[in-house]
Amino acid sequence: MRSPARTFRESAGLAARLNQKGNKLISAAHANIPAFDRSDWASWEYPGVTWSNLKVKGGKLEIESAIRADSLTKIYRSGGAEVVVFNNLSLQVSREERLAIIGESGVGKSTLLHLLGGLDRPTSGSISYDGRNIVSLNDQELAEFRNRQVAFVWQNPSLLADFTALENVMMPLLIRGLRPEAAARYADDRLREVGLKARALHRAGELSGGEQQRVALARALAAGPSVLLADEPTGSLDYKTGDMIAGLLRDLHSSHNLTSVFVTHNLSLASRCDRVLELKKGILQAVSGVELQNARIIQDATRPGGTYV
């Protein structure tokens, strides 16, 4: 039997269908292409492809996008000057994909992430989640969308220092309108998931940097988002702690069926993702594993053993 990855490449674009039980892929046009079970899926090497993000449309097998940005342009104006961050940039992120975006400082990676998360608006272009263009939403609708659909993790955890870990994780749930008792239960579950159940009643200011970032992860996932956007999530941590956070991000991505986009200089984190793109001169370019290994490396003395660009 041919490998699932090879079978996909051969059958993509052909008339295809899913049977009613949904547990086998069958080519209607080429009976000689064997069907395969979900158990085969783990051996796929096709970036960003999972069983759940495939759909059949117009008789063709397609990968379903969770996020789609079309012809994004972002221009900042200061006085009479214009700074074009990028022009007509387009991007698709498949459902449940882990995407890393790398690039030099100042090229617009964080700007792109802010646009994807609805924290800023493009000068022109569209950003769609499951076909819904969030650029057309008003400010109130956009705030509600972010609270329910998108989780953010930043280099600085930005916890409220005088509140406990539990109270920090409860915040987005209370904003959504949950009763405190229910919010506390959800928050407690998330802290247990990141290994901080025993630290739930400690104030944020009493936690280490790595513990604070884990609280930030728990807070981000408390409201049950479908998308995780992270900007330098390991940037303030030593290499060992950063590696632990990278592993935790991988596990949480899988257990919560997330679609994740990471902006990072950390090649170790990037290499764990399904796909890596480099933003350079306003253009997104695919980066292979070999290119990551051959990239010009700067060793940061504050992160012993770390590999960063």
List the helices and strands and how they pair.
Blueprint: H1 4-11, E1 16-18, E2 25-27, E3 54-57, E4 60-63, E5 65-78, E6 81-94, E7 98-102, H2 109-116, E8 124-129, E9 132-133, H3 139-149, E10 150-154, H4 165-176, H5 180-193, H6 209-221, E11 227-231, H7 239-255, E12 259-263, H8 267-271, E13 275-280, E14 283-286, H9 289-294
Parallel strand pairs: 7-12, 7-13, 10-11, 11-12
Antiparallel strand pairs: 1-2, 3-4, 5-6, 5-8, 8-9, 13-14
Helix pairs in contact: 4-5, 4-6, 5-6, 6-7
Overall tally of domains? 2
Instruction: Tell me the number of helical segments per DSSP (H or I, 4 or more residues long).
Output: 9
The pLDDT mean sits at 79
Q: What low-confidence regions span 5 or more consecutive residues with pLDDT below 50?
A: 1-53, 56-62, 296-309
> Major sheet: order of its strands?
10-11-12-7-13-14
Coarse morphology: globular
Measured between the Cα atoms of the first and last residue, the distance is 41 Å
CATH homologous superfamily caption of the largest domain: P-loop containing nucleotide triphosphate hydrolases
Fill in the CATH topology of the largest domain. Rossmann fold
What's the gyration radius in Å?
21 Å
SSE pattern, N- to C-terminal = HEEEEEEEHEEHEHHHEHEHEEH
Number of strands: 14
Beta-strand content estimate: 25-35%
- Class inferred from helices and paired strands: alpha/beta
Helix % is 25-40%
Biggest sheet: strands, sense, closure?
A: 6 strands, mixed
| Highest-level CATH class of the largest domain | Alpha Beta
CATH architecture of the largest domain: 3-Layer(aba) Sandwich
